[in-house]
Each structure stands twice: as C-alpha cells, then as structure tokens.
Amino acid sequence: MGLVSRLLTRATAAARTWLALIARHCRPHVALAVAIALLVQGVGLTNGRRDGRRPPPAVEPTVQQPARHGLGTPSDWRRPDPDPPPVRRTASGPLTSWVRRIAAGPSTLVDARGRRWQHDSGHLDGRSSVTSARIEGTSSQSIYQHERSGMRGYVIQVPAPATYAVNLYLAETRFSRPRQRVFDVTAEGVVKASDVDIIEAAGRNHAYHLSFTAAVTDGQLNLGFINKIGQAKVNGIEVTFLRRSTAARRLVWSDEFNGAQNSPVDSRRWWHETGGAWGEGELQSYTPRKANSYQDGRGRLMIVARAERFRGADSITRDYTSARISTQDRYSFRYGLFEARLQMPVGRGVWPAFWALGADIDQSGWPECGEIDVMEHLGQEPTTASGTIHGPRDGGGANADYEPGRSVVHTTPLAQDFHTYGVQWLPGSIQFYFDGRAYWSITAADLPAGSRWVFDHPFFLILNIAIGGKWAGSPDASTTFPQALYVDYVRVYQ
Questions:
Q1: Pairing outcome for strands 317-322 and 284-286
Q2: How far is CA 218 from CA 93, 94, 161, 409, 410, in A?
Q3: Active-site residue, from 256, 371, 381, 403
Q4: 306: which strand partners?
Q5: Nearest CA to 415 among 342, 321, 474?
Q6: Which of 19, 46, 163, 273 has the fewest CB atoms in 10 Å of its CB?
Q7: Nearest Cα to 253, choosing from 25, 458, 47?
Q8: What is the pLDDT along the chain (494 residues), one digit of tens a residue?
Q9: How far apart are CA 100 and CA 111, in angstroms?
C-alpha cells in the first residue's frame, strides 16, 4: 500500500469517527447533511481529477468546410460536446423511440404492414371526407382514401423535447390539373414546404409524401397549413422520434476531394472493391489503380472506365476496367441527408451510380441488408437519372427483391454540367432529390404486399461505374472510351 493510500485510509477513519460523534450529539437531519457534503466533496478523486472525467481525446476532423452549394447547409463541424444534454425520461426510461400515426378518418386504420393508425385528432378546424378512388403507388389504400381539408393545423402531443421526423401522406383525388390546390406547410412556425401542388408533383390518385424534421422544445408539435389556392389537405401524419438534440442539422462527414493531382482516394474514408461481374453480368474488372480512380488536384475525384484487356483480382480477364469505392468498415450511418455532386459519363452501356448498402450485408446478405440507389444513370439516356430502393420480398424464391423507384428527366444532358443527387432518409421514409428538389419518396406503408422494410439500421456509401450488364446493355460502336464520372463532393448531414 502506497503513501497516498495510507493517507486516504487514515482520513477515512478520522471522518468515520467524526461522523459518529455528530450522530450522538446532533439532530439526525444535521448528521445526514454533513455526511452528504463529505460524499459530494470526496467522490471519485480519480487520477487527481474531479469526478473521474477525463478530458476528451483530440479529435481529427474528418470533414472539410464545403465550398460549393448542395442540399445541406454549410458545415459547423466541431468537436463532440463532452457534456451532452440530459436524457428526458419517460415513464419507462430514457426516450429512445416513439411514433404516432394519425389517419384523417373517423376510426382506427391498419396499414399493409399491420401497423395501427389512430383516428383523426389534434386538428384545428377543417372537414373530413372519404373516397373510393384507387390510389397508385401504395399498398395501404385506406390511408389515402380518408382526408381532411381546410384545416389550419394540427397540434400533436410528443413525449419530450427532441427532433422528430414528420411524414405527411398525401394523394389528390379531387382535382386533375396543376394549380387547383396549392398550400404551404409549417412546423413549429418554420416553413417546411412551400407551394405544395400534389397534382404537379405526383399526378391524380397517386401517393405522395412530404418529409421533414421538426425540433420541438416543449411537449407538443405544432403543424400549420397555409392555403394559397383552394384548401390545404392531408391524408395521414406520421411523427417519429429521431434524436434527443434539437440543434439544427449539421455536416457530420464528407469528402471534398481536395487532394493533390493524381493522388488516390483517402484510404481513411474509402476502400477499393475489386473483381467484376457481380450479380448483373457486368463486363468490367474493378481495380485500385490510379488509371481508374484519382483526384485531379482541382477538387474532384475521377472514376474512369477504360476499354482494355485486364486480368482482375478474381483471375478473370475482361475487356473493360473501372473503379468501385465504398466506405464499408470506414464509415456508416443511420438516417440523415446524404448527397453527391456529380457530372455523368456518356455512351451506351456506361452505368455510373451513387448508392448505399446496409452495413450488415456480410451477415444478412442481399437484399435483406437493403439498398438505396441515390442515383443510377444509363449513358444511352443522357437526360435521365433514377432513384430506387431494394429490399426483400416474400414468396419470390432466393434473393427475391422489390425495387420501387422513379426517374427524373432534366432538360439538358447530365454530362454537360454538375448536378446534386441526394436522399433524405428518415425513420420509415426515404425521399429522393435532384438539384435540391424532391422528386420521389417511399414509405414503409407504401411497399408492395409481402415486402419488408429494411432501412432502419446503418448503411455505407458506394461510388462506381459499371460497364454493361442486364440493365445497361453492352457498349456498341458508338461508345467511346475512356469515360469518367466526375465527383465534386460527397456529404452526410445529421
């Protein structure tokens, strides 16, 4: 036993003797107060630091200040707060999950996944109605066949101050032309969607969603609906706990590709997947060579596909080479807004993609792990990009998957300039963006019958160019090589 330990032992014995004297000669509550004071002063004198808390270790930033526009806001990256806000406890403990689903009808509904939706409540004015129209793009017809219109808002009780994900379920069954119903939506007094025109966005009798986050600082979420043309409407509202913090979304990870000319990708962020063919009968070999991926010294990553005979890592010789990089085992995340600013290659059979796979793929396999295709482009369709999700479907045999998706068509070829492709991923919903505007969204309630939602666990990111395959088809005489996917940045906000 060292000197310090002996001194502490003697001090402890003296304190006990003193407390015993106080207990005999003082009132009980005085003795208790003195004992508590001693405990507070002496607790955890660990390594000479009060209460044992070590200074936070040095944290090397893994993001850079963004210099170019995108979906998110500029970075305010900072070291993690060593003293996070206190956990608000519910009757059963800390708040970690919570959801409320409201259908604009007079009775409880059950969606295609067997989840219960409460009857319409919390609305401020408006009137409800029912339709028998068949709604496309969803397997949960009943949600969209009930609606409330003309309301000023909803007041929804939540269990604690926090940030919540809000998903509005919408379908236009009355009008058939744009500009017949236009409205704004607010949450906690902040405009979340302006000039909402369901017909213009989705057409008649088709499921449509507005997804956003709302920071609630008291016990209720206040949604507002502002009429501009006609009356605002809603079919269903889903509110889900997202995170304890009510701070604004911030940049948490990025690569701005500001490396030196001809330098490889940052191995702390990315690794090269090698081999070829995969599951689509593709024609390329993926390599880690600088000939297929490098930073150009001007703030861009180049992923280059080449026509050349090459023996790949799988010992198979193919006629094309390319690169496929991913953040697997480097970085994965759950929920948030992620985006990339890209300029497309051209040519038949050229297939670039920016996408994400479930981090459990090695344990669960595909499609059980889930797949989010933020952007896929076929070189023979120069103005079109697609967003898709993949997940498991029952009754279709091994590796049976569903793949709902939608394409966005630009006015000029996507190879002529950079465009931003992004996804807002929230509990139970995924919304796709092109140049900052949402063009499609999907929710768990909308999945085809027999499908499972597998998008509530961490995912990692992938960038690649494939050549050929079942979907893209093979290159022909019109396709020239090399072809490059230019990547300005990749960012994740939470």
A1: parallel
A2: 18, 16, 5, 42, 43
A3: 371
A4: 321
A5: 342
A6: 46
A7: 458
A8: 443 333 333 344 444 444 444 444 444 444 444 343 433 333 332 332 222 222 222 222 223 333 333 444 333 322 233 333 333 444 456 788 999 999 998 999 999 999 999 999 999 999 999 999 999 999 999 999 999 999 999 999 999 999 999 999 999 999 999 999 999 999 999 999 999 999 999 999 999 999 999 999 999 999 999 999 999 999 999 999 999 999 999 999 999 999 999 999 999 999 999 998 777 899 999 999 999 999 999 999 999 999 999 999 899 999 999 999 999 999 999 999 999 999 999 999 999 999 999 999 999 999 999 999 999 999 999 999 999 999 999 866 667 788 889 999 999 999 999 999 999 999 999 999 999 999 999 999 999 888 999 999 999 999 999 999 999 999 999 999 999 999 999 999 99
A9: 13
Active site residue 371: yes
Q: Does the model's pTM come out above 0.70?
A: yes
Distance between alpha carbon 299 and the CA centroid of its chain, in Å? 25
Q: Is the peptide bond before 367 cis (omega within 30 degrees of 0)?
A: yes
First to last CA, the chain: 50
Spatial contact of 266 and 259, defined as CB atoms under 8 Å apart: yes
Known catalytic membership, residue 339: no
Length of the chain: 494
Please state the three-class secondary structure of the chain as a single string: CCHHHHHHHHHHHHHHHHHHHHHHHCCHHHHHHHHHHHHHHHCCCECCEHHHCCCCCCCCCCCCCCCCCCCCCCCCCCCCCCCCCCCCEECCEECCCCEEEEECCCCCEECCCCCEEECCCCEECCEEEECCCCCECCCCHHHHCEEEECCCEEEEECCCCEEEEEEEEECECCCCCCCCCEEEEEECCEEEEEEECHHHHHCECECEEEEEEEEECCCEEEEEEEEEECCCEECEEEEEEEECCCCCCCEEEEECCCCCCCECCCCCCCEECCEECCCCCECEEECCCCCCEEECCCCCEEEEEEEEEEECCCCCEEEEEECEEECCCCCCECCEEEEEEEECCCCCCEEEEEEEEECCHHHHCCCCCCEEEEEECCCCCCCEEEEEEEEEECCCCCCCEECCEEEEECCCCCCCCCEEEEEEEECCEEEEEECCEEEEEEEHHHCCCCECCCCCCCEEEEEEEEEECCCCCCCCCCCCCCEEEEEEEEEEEC
